[in-house]
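Two proteins were folded this term; both appear here.
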Amino acid sequence: MSMILFACVVRVRDGLPLSASTDFYHTQDFLECRRRLKTLALQLAQYPGRGSAEGRDFNIHFSSLRDVACMAICSRQCPVAMAFSFLETLWWEFTASYDTTCIGLASRPYAFLEFDSIIQNVKWHFNHVSSIQMESSLEKIQEELEFQPPVVLTLEDTDVANGLMNGHTQIHLEPAPNFRMEPVTALGVLSLILNIMCAALNLIRGIHLAEHSLQVVHEEIGNILAFLIPFVACIFQCYLYLFYSPARTMKVVFLLLFICLGNMYLHGLRNVWQILFHIAVAFLSSYQILTRQLQEKQSDCGV
């Protein structure tokens, strides 16, 4: 019997499943373990990089780094070092195939279906290659586990952490994020392109002015800052549009204010049409940020 039964890749911040192996097991105990894996995926942000949830017949192991986590359901006979070696290999394969932006912008479950076959291949390799052949990699993982042991849970703890008490003592945990941003729109992409263009213009003019100022007087320092501060504000506007940030309305207002004041200060170095263009792009970007709402995670987006 295989020791690694199921594996998946999820996004840490909201538990969104990105890819998973094919499931050939349909026993009641296994399906219950799958349900608890889904619950645990929503709580990964609350735990350190490595952990295990132990059950009667199956164990769930997870390994996370940055915004990607790999999870596996293994039989009780599977060595812990083998499970985490498998998860580490899977993590490297996935992060080598997809960049951070692509992962962050994923808006639907199993957005990386093409990676499913790689999970299957890695799972087959670990299930069928002898431990002697993997001895060196397992020794390395074993040393890491001894130096920094993984957190150990029970499968019941996953329900407690998710608010399903089942008669157990409540564990106080902050809720994991269950929301993601709405898909990027065509107008939003246009605002990003224009914002990047404005940022580039500000950066080029600011650096050019600084390089040609042999004796920097107070007015020239002000002009340089008036170029560079809107440059930073434009980049931050792009970030706020792409990724969720708390108190974003206040941040948008401050960024818009910096861009408007900076461009008005540059009157004389820029004509009226150039100033109006930069301010109009800033208003368009602000509008796109504020209208791109959080999208509630669908209840049927299970692993």
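Next, the second protein.
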Amino acid sequence: MSKQPQPISPLKNFFAGGFGGVCLVFAGHPLDTIKVRLQTQPKPKPGERLIYAGTLDCFKKTLAKEGMKGLYKGMAAPIIGVTPMFAVCFFGFGLGKKLQQKTPHDILTYPQLFAAGMLSGVFTTAIMAPGERIKCLLQIQASTGEVKYAGPMDCVKQLYGQSGIRGIYKGTALTLMRDVPASGMYFMSYEWLKNLLTPAGKSHNELSVPSILFAGGMAGICNWAVAIPADVLKSRFQTAPEGKYPNGFRDVLRELVREEGVASLYKGFNAVMLRAFPANAACFLGFEFAMKFLNWLAPNL
């Protein structure tokens, strides 16, 4: 069970979540670039080798060819998108918890925390889907060497020009399929680990920095363990040429499994897991610090 000493404030969750999101992008973007490049690299022709042999190879080649800047490619879109997205994500979780409480000090069960987390996944998809589409397109154009978009805004303009708002929101259903169960897992596992690491008789507010980092990092790993298959399908679908998959994700799934087997649904697994721990540890640490600051600043909000 989760102990909530302070009444839940979705508004404070909103601001603290935004700050957590900024911390997450800075800590995790380089490995996100590698993940997308590994997931979307073309199948080699007979006799040719893959562009990247794996996570480390992709890291080395990106660094050699493009320097540190290459690892932070396309970061403007996630910073602009992630800050409000995490604000909305933590707001959704706070609201989901509040809606299930009969009194402000009710302690929620783990299934209730999972449900609150799933609500946050629904909230974030509206912001997440276009941001992810733009980010994936910018990340892969850098590795293919064919420069089609000058930057995030140019990408939005071109997509809108080609197929209207639908072009920008391509892959929304897959983003929902990925984020709703994964967000439930994310928040539930974080609360569970916080409970596990809190010494008897102490409150969550007294958790040490290493404990918060560990709980946040592990929550990120639990989140991605659920999210990866849908994420691979989403990256493929969002970066495919128009009309390639007329039946949406079913076509992507069939093609992937037929050509590369079920294991291909876990492409980029190492890069994702390597990124998930530090990025989410940074996110929750940022969130908890911002939350403490807001509780001190406005205790009754």
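Residues 182 and 225 are 8 Å apart (CA to CA). The two ends are 25 Å apart (CA to CA). These notes refer to the second protein only.
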